[in-house]
Amino acid sequence: MPISESDILRWLREEDPVRLEELFAEADRVRHENVGDAVHLRGLIEISNICCRRCAYCGIRVDNPAVERYRLSREEIMNCVREAVAYGYGTAVMQAGEDYGIGREWLAGIIAEIKRTTPLAVTLSLGERPDEDLAAWRAAGADRYLLRFETSDPALYAIIHPPAPGKAPTDRIAILRRLQELGYEAGSGVMIGIPGQSYRSLAHDIATFAALDLDMIGVGPYLPHPETPLGSRAVAPAIDPAEQVPNSEAMTYKVLALTRLACPQANIPSTTALATLNTVSGRELGLQRGANVVMPNLTPPQYRVLYEIYPAKACISETAEQCQRCLEGRIRAIGRQVGQGQGGRGRRA
């Protein structure tokens, strides 16, 4: 029986530690029964920090003049892909700001090369792109697409996510459905505790994950960047303080667990943002409370420091090799094993 939105809301407000341990244990049981004990590694390649959007929460927004911009070359991307294969990862995740310098045919060629020369799944996370781009990349072999809808509250969405300059507002829920029509495994997610987010709207976000039947779901704490309207408080959505969701580690674990109960077969990462809040054991606790994926960073260190969506990101100075060794050790330390293969939705390893 799927968890109801009213039950989600009740759990989000729950503060009794004994009751919460029951929630976490149930989420871990559901995770074990539906996706097994393997933790799948997705190699993250941040291919560009160029972005045309003015999202109120994001450090690489177009209006931040302090950002030193970059875009990886084809060879730099393929070097990262070869590292992913060498480390035994099942997926390469190419992530960027909404950068239209990433051309349709250029990226399609890279996707086709990855699929032709490696066993990797290809995941894209490139923002809102025209249907023609999405279709071409799917035809080239891309398997998955991540597009976070950030909040299901239309009023809050309009504040934190204004349309691109000269463009009409878009509907990310509709784009996610289109991605599914094109044959992608579709992923989405939200930030936890973004200013203006109420308990009720967050409960609806989690129910929306289930309604969309998402294959991948990323949930992590909102971490403010000082060079953004939300981080500097130049923008402050109106909300009753008693209804504001905290951007805390404790709330993140609740949302991870509830997301697993709402979407038993989805792939759910224990995120870098969570590890940033708790560098000692955040990732492990996330994996023990519903998550089954981690995303080691393959981006060359000289570029990684420039992809600053929020400050003080965990593992920012590690090499790809150090990141791989650290994460594999953490996974084994909690009695789980590293997943083999591409690790699609609901597949045990």
Furnish the topology, listing elements before pairings:
Layout (H helix, E strand, L loop, with lengths): L4 H9 L3 H19 L2 E11 L25 H13 L4 E6 L7 H14 L3 E5 L5 H10 L3 E3 L7 H7 L11 H10 L3 E8 L6 H14 L3 E6 L27 H14 L9 H6 L4 H6 L5 E2 L6 H4 L15 H14 L3 E2 L11
Parallel strand pairs: 1-2, 1-7, 1-8, 2-3, 3-4, 4-5, 5-6
Helix pairs in contact: 1-8, 2-9, 4-5, 8-9
Question: If you had to describe this structure to a student in words, what would you say it looks like?
Answer:
The chain is an alpha/beta fold and 349 residues long. The chain is built from 13 helices and eight strands. Helix 1 (5-13) packs across helix 8, helix 2 (17-35) crosses helix 9 (249-262) and helix 4 packs parallel to helix 5 (131-140). It has one domain (5-338): TIM Barrel (Alpha-Beta Barrel), CATH 3.20.20. The protein has helices at residues 5-13, 17-35, 74-86, 104-117, 131-140, 154-160, 172-181, 199-212, 249-262, 272-277, 282-287, 301-304, 320-333; strands at 38-48, 91-96, 121-125, 144-146, 185-192, 216-221, 293-294, 337-338. The protein starts with a helix and ends in an 11-residue tail after the last strand. Helix 8 (199-212) links the parallel strand 5 (185-192) and strand 6 (216-221). Strands 1, 2, 3, 4, 5, 6, 7 and 8 form an eight-stranded parallel β-sheet that branches. 40% of the residues lie in helices and 12% in strands.
Brief sketch in words of this structure:
The chain is of the alpha/beta class and 349 residues long. Helix content is 40%, strand content 12%. Helix 8 links the parallel strand 5 and strand 6.
